Amino acid sequence: MLQMRPGCECCDRDLPPDSTDARICTFECTFCVSCATERLKGICPNCGGELTTRPRRPASKLAAYPPSTQRVFKPQGYAPRPVD
Q: Which Pfam families does the record match to this protein (predicted)?
């Protein structure tokens, strides 16, 4: 089951479980759409994997399967990814 991390690792923007702006890799590193597309160019800076839209958890399932409350934030940020 997805952890549904609550914020962007890069800018610490809130990403609630119903957000359409969350992007994740296969390791669930989580970024907002702005950081994922503009700064990271769709590639996870931690593992090199593709960043894709995080699925949303239905509201009816949140009580039984709550999202994570643990934030992962790297205040030093990530250097912008060079254009290939």
A: DUF1272 (PF06906)
